[in-house]
Design a protein that fits this description.
alpha+beta; 3-hydroxy-3-methylglutaryl-coenzyme A Reductase, Chain A, domain 2; Alpha-Beta Plaits; 5-stranded antiparallel β-sheet; 17 helices
């Protein structure tokens, strides 16, 4: 099928050195794009379509769409569409993915796509009695919250509920009802909000309270994805550093981010350089995912690193093991994934089923609630696993640089091109001026303008 990765490799030698036209041709062949779809890579959406997506439109704001290469995820090759303006992000992810191939690539998993719809209850006379009454009426409440026939037909819909008591808030005590909604391939904001609004009157009647807010929570901690990787120390060997030195440095850097929230903030920002780029390319709500993940990072009372990197084994058998787990509410149907042509192309490049059909295989002994490498997922859950792998790769690239040459060397080399363009360089002059700035070790706009005048 178009977009399938079976029998192909994402290891494309010298992909970054190819011309723009060559790279587009490779991606078009990889994803089985039509001529019209290939044109979308350059043109994206028109002004008329943009005017239908948001309010007060006056134009369009374009961003580069790069391809993260070399990704081997659960034994399958992927080329990763990444919409990002920051230099070195795509290169870093691709480099780390190549390192991961020295092992078995990335292994991933995810939970069922459960979103939380919250209903705030105020003026409840007896909180304990109301909580018992609400839980005793669970079946009736969930039936009332079952508002999407399409999602229900696909095996989703309301799955359960819980009641939380907040005894001491500035507005007095509150009961908070959580409805657990399986949203299948949708991100689920509309489904969760509709379910909360539909169930609120019945919950008011049962509890004797007054319903306040009825809305989803973006802390989707029941909808998580994770990625793991293990790489032999020798894969990190270079002329300047031994692999064992590098992986120890990576583990020490991660320990710093676990212990210190100031470092953790920058550490996690680097993860989202990759996560957000894929979310944006596929038309997903990166703001919601970031909000939930940052809350997840602070769930123990202190903001910490989202990743865990540590060294296993000893001597020549040492390996670096990394894991990233975070809430990831993403969709492959609805919203911008349907209305934005570039998002549909990005999903096609990933080989995902944009029609929302999911497959699930339990041949490996897995269950639908804990999907792993052999799950056969093709929709939103598979996308969440891919995103987690990209986030882990991005973090590995950053920590490797920090543990060796420092983050600026590679970043500024790529930044030099942006400076050349800002100075007015075009065509071949961009690379010429960027190369001179790098050689001089002075990547400044003023110097780029001087070189352009020479």
């Amino acid at each position: 099928m178009a977009g399938s990765t079976e029998g192909r490799s994402s290891r494309i030698e010298g992909f970054y050195r190819r011309s723009l036209e060559d790279r587009i041709g490779i991606i078009s062949e990889w994803a089985g794009l039509t001529c019209e779809e290939t044109a979308v890579l350059a043109e994206s959406i028109g002004a008329e379509q943009a005017d239908k997506m948001v309010e007060n439109v006056v134009g369009r704001f374009s961003m580069p769409l790069g391809i993260g290469a070399n990704f081997l995820i659960d034994g399958r090759d992927y080329l990763i569409p990444m919409a990002v303006e920051e230099p070195s992000v795509v290169a870093g992810a691709s480099s780390a993915a190549l390192l991961a191939r020295a092992g078995v690539g990335f292994k991933t998993g995810c939970t069922d796509p459960i979103m939380i719809a919250q209903i705030q209850l105020l003026d409840v006379a007896d909180a304990s009695k109301a909580k018992r009454a609400i839980l005793a009426s669970q079946e009736k409440i969930l039936a009332c919250a079952d508002t999407s026939p399409t999602i229900s037909q696909l095996g989703g819909g309301p799955q359960g509920m819980e009641v939380r008591y907040l005894p001491d808030t500035e507005a007095g005590p509150m009961l908070i009802v959580h409805l657990f909604i399986d949203c299948r391939d949708a991100m689920g904001a509309n489904a969760a909000n509709t379910a909360a609004e539909a169930a609120a009157p019945l919950i008011e009647q049962i509890s004797g309270g007054r319903a306040g807010l009825r809305i989803l929570s973006n802390l989707s901690d029941r909808r998580r994805a994770w990625a793991e990787v293990e790489i032999a120390a020798k894969a990190f060997d270079s002329n300047d550093y031994s692999g064992r030195e590098v992986i120890r440095g990576i583990a020490e850097a991660n320990a710093f981010a676990i212990a210190d929230p100031y470092r953790a903030t920058t550490h996690n920002k680097g993860i989202f350089n990759g996560v957000d780029a894929v979310l944006l390319a596929t038309g997903n709500d990166w703001r919601a995912v970031e909000a939930g993940a940052h809350a997840w990072a602070a769930r123990g009372g202190q903001y910490r690193a989202l990743t865990d990197w540590h060294v296993r084994g000893c001597g020549d058998s040492e390996t670096l093991h990394g894991r990233l787990e975070l809430p990831l509410a993403v969709g492959t149907v609805g919203g911008a994934t349907r209305s934005h042509a570039s998002a549909q192309i990005a999903l096609k490049i990933l080989g995902l089923d944009v029609d929302g059909q999911e497959e699930f295989s339990t041949e490996s002994g897995g269950s639908a609630g804990d999907a792993g490498a052999e799950s056969g997922l093709q929709g939103a859950r598979r996308l969440s696993q891919i995103v987690a792998a990209v986030g882990l790769a991005q973090n590995l690239a950053a920590l490797r640089a920090l543990a060796t040459t420092g983050i600026q060397k590679g970043h500024m080399r790529l930044h030099a091109r942006q400076v050349a363009v800002a100075a007015g360089a075009r065509g071949e002059a961009v690379e010429r001026i960027a190369g001179q700035l790098i050689a001089e070790g002075s990547i400044r706009l003023e110097r780029a303008k001087e070189l352009l005048r020479m």
